[in-house]
Amino acid sequence: MKKLLITLAVAIATCALVAAPRGPRASQNHVPSTLEGTRQFETAAANYNHIALVNVGGAVADEDWALSATYAVSLLQINVWTNSAASIELEKLVKENDYTAKLLGNEKAKVAVYFVNIPGGARIISSPGAWAVVNTADLKDGNPDAQIYRDRVAKSVMKGLAAAGGGGATLEPFCSLFYGSQDIQGMDKTNIAISPMCYFPMLEILRGAGGNEIIAPVGEMGEEE
Length: 225
Hints:
This protein is of the alpha/beta class. Helix content is 37%, strand content 13%. Strand 4 (124-127) and strand 5 form a beta hairpin.
């Protein structure tokens, strides 16, 4: 039963990703101003193998984080929980396989995406199947309004999830991973989406890290084994 539900979830996710809006900014998807009607994080997700999105040192303000991270994750069929940390030790993250589990106090956190604010630092570094660190320092370049900024955060969530799952650049202009979105100007032209060419390999790498639990949202797939 669980395998059937997972298969259906993947099929649904594919349709949603393929149907993502293309073209000029007017047709893009955007982070909503409220979470009404958006699938939210399930508390139970933390009890199953999951990907942890970690807002480090308030890299993203709480309101922006809640809206952007929730919206981005609602578009994907993966098991995600969100958390925060005062800081991270990159050397330990690289050297210790259980660093995330110890930092968050949860052995079910199998993969993590850390969001930091380090001016002048690398945009993204990652160890596929384990973690990614996303630098949010330039997301406010150009003094964007709240909508543009939140969209940038959501796209950064997509980039981080893909990086942690082994995804690289894609050829799809609507995808958050589009090869032309490596700077802010390019990012603003993309959508909050992950194309199938990245999504399916990403799922298999995540499955290797956390089994079927990590690629099935608790709230939609049910909690049965």
